[in-house]
Amino acid sequence: MCIIYAMESEKSNEEMLFTKKNKIEAACIIPAGGISSRMGQWKAELPDKEGIPLLLKTVLTATKACHRVIVIGGYRFTALKDLLHSCQDIEILENKNYHKGMLSTIQTGLSIIEEDFFILPLDMPLIGVSHFHRITAHHVAGKISRPIYSGIPGHPVYIDQSWKERILKMKGETLGRSLDMKDQNLIPWTDESVIFDLDSYKVYESYLNH
User: Which residues form a coiled coil (predicted)?
Assistant: First the structure.
């Protein structure tokens, strides 16, 4: 939990008490090493609608859902650690090869885990705790489970530990491009929350205003 944001709302506090007893026995990897080139500003510190930096919002959601949260930084790593100084019970790693792409950042996180894990980018503010639980409820052993909306695969992605060594050996910039459709268990979703990411400042402004 991030201390400075513990007093969110009565509903959030109730949710936190519930999920404390019902956390998923899985890790959540949050890749946060990129330079946010399309955004034009560092995404991690941009505020969401409630004024909470996007990275902190994502970490808070993940800590409610999963028993372990790992944030992997790269670009502006010292600033990232400062941004997370109020958060307890999370692990922060540095990917010095962050310029190689998100796959290398995910691989850095995988190097310290032995359990099943989620992957959730920091720029998806519509993801909530219920997303994690629904995805695990529909997981197929041996597959990579992820939601899909309007034909587009989204996040969070849920992967069992049997995939760890294969992912560590993958090459390229992104995990998605290294996967075959037969490897994936796609879970139909009814709204765009699972594909809505803040990939440009124009989208970010639209998110804030609507």
Answer: none
